[in-house]
Design goal:
162 residues, mainly alpha, 5 helices
Length: 162
């Protein structure tokens, strides 16, 4: 019985040694897997940080773009509302006094009203200081020529009603 016990013990010991080797091999594999997963987790944290950084940059770029668009719109509005085109000046100063002349006068009036209504906003701007005398000169010229238009229109009306 002792021999049988010794044989059983040897068989079990061989199995135990093999099992122990398999456990150590599994521990090694699990340690490698843990290392890989920790590296993966670290990479995911870097990716998360990069995404957060990109989101912040994107938000800042959107704000910047919105601000630039707003400034561009305001500049366009200012240019449209205040700049005197050479054609407008020529129409008011030199062109024939007719219905088109009245449209030019209305455009001039709109520009003067625009600058007047935004006077606080543009106070001190070099462009408005340069435009003001030119607008006044052009307005005076239009006022000088307007009686001629009224005289022509009145005479046309009298002829057509006869």
């Amino acid at each position: 019985m002792q021999n049988e016990s010794a044989l059983d013990y040897l068989k079990i010991e061989e199995d135990a040694v093999r099992l122990n080797a398999q456990i150590e091999q599994a521990d090694g594999i699990l340690a490698q897997l843990e290392s890989i997963l920790l590296g993966f987790q670290e990479n995911l944290n870097f990716i998360k940080d990069d995404m957060t950084s990109l989101q912040k940059r994107s938000l800042n770029m959107n704000i910047s773009l919105k601000n630039r668009k707003e400034i561009s719109d305001r500049i366009s509005e200012f240019v449209e509302g205040s700049v005197l085109e050479p054609e407008l000046i020529a129409e008011i100063c030199n062109k024939e006094i007719d219905e088109h002349y009245v449209l030019s006068i209305n455009r001039l009036r709109a520009k003067i009203e625009y600058l007047s209504s935004h006077q606080q906003e543009f106070a001190g701007a070099a462009l408005t200081r340069e435009l003001e005398p030119e607008l006044q000169r052009l307005n005076r010229k239009a006022c000088q020529r307007s009686p001629l238009y009224l005289e022509c229109a009145t005479s046309w009306w009298r002829r057509s009603s006869c």
